[in-house]
Amino acid sequence: MTMVRVAIPSEGNGGLDGKRAGHFGHCDVFTCFDVEDGQIKGVTILANKEHVQGGCMVPVNLLAEAGVNALVVGGIGMRPLMGFKQVGIEVYHDGERMDIRPVVEDFVAGNLQIITDNQVCGGGH
Amino acid sequence: MERIFLKVLLVAKDITQFSALEVRLKCLQEMDLVSAATGDAGLSQLKSQKIDLVIVNEQLADMSGIAFVKQLVRINPLANTAIVSALTDEEFHEATEGLGVLMQLPPQTQEKDAEALLSILEKIGVLLQPMAPQPQKATKP
Question: Pick from A43, A47, A78: which is nearest to B139 by CB?
């Protein structure tokens, strides 16, 4: 089965026992985990780049270059969401939990939903 | 002169209001400037060509500048945007949150606004360069 690399915007050093960041563009790191056959095969930590006003495509490019296939966010703006769609990264939503591990477990179990347009931040929504 | 390639779309009924910006941007060796008089015409151009920067007036004949950018991000999220607006900083931030707007421009744009825009674009351009390989910390699942 194809391996899927999933990124979670994280605070501090990230990792499965770390905390999620509320705003993906401002996160310290991305906790990336590789899933194959329903199993987590590995976890890597990817440092985020400096956030610049209007620089929404920076993390889009960063994650695309890192081979990420899916992203789980608590919130995201319409422009970066469209950017992720354009580069083929699916964006999932979990707006409740701060801990990374239960969100990862739910992703692996197929319990997370792809974010909808009415769940994006701002822009009149 | 800088060696930067930039394709710029100006969207306004009367683009002479951007003449100060235009003068500065044209100092770039490789700059292609196109214009559209209405929001619909601008969106059509964004569907058919790669645009690096879109500068849009506060109000167009068929929609507001902010409404234009709301449609733009669904068509071409890679295009960077600057909007003319008389809103306060807080109002502008609220109205454009999530749209990834580079900069709010004053109603009377000046050359210094072009300098600020170019500075931001340069910073983003640098940031968009692929990073040198960095060690990744591997941890046990």
Answer: A43
pLDDT tens digits, A11-39: 999 999 999 998 888 899 999 999 999 99
Beta-carbon separation of B136 and A52 below 8 A = no
DSSP B59: B
**Domains defined for chain A, CATH in brackets:** 4-119 (3.30.420.130)
Give helix B111-128 / helix A57-65 axis angle, nearest 10°.
20
Q: Are B99 and A78 inside 8 Å of each other by CB? A: yes
| Range A14-45 burial, b when 16+ CB lie within 10 A, else e | bbbebbbbeebbebbbbbbbbbeeeebeebbb
Separation of alpha carbons A20 and A8, rounded Å: 7
Interface touch B98/A45, C-beta < 8 Å: no
Q: What percent of chain A has pLDDT over 70?
A: 96
Chain position carrying tokens 């994280």: A10
Residue ranges covered by each domain of chain B: 5-119
Amino acid at A63: L
Cα–chain center distance at B98: 14
What CATH number should be reported for the domain whose range is B5-119? 3.40.50.2300
A64 touching B (Cβ < 8 Å): no
Contacts of B124 in chain A (CB under 8 A): 52, 54-55, 57-58
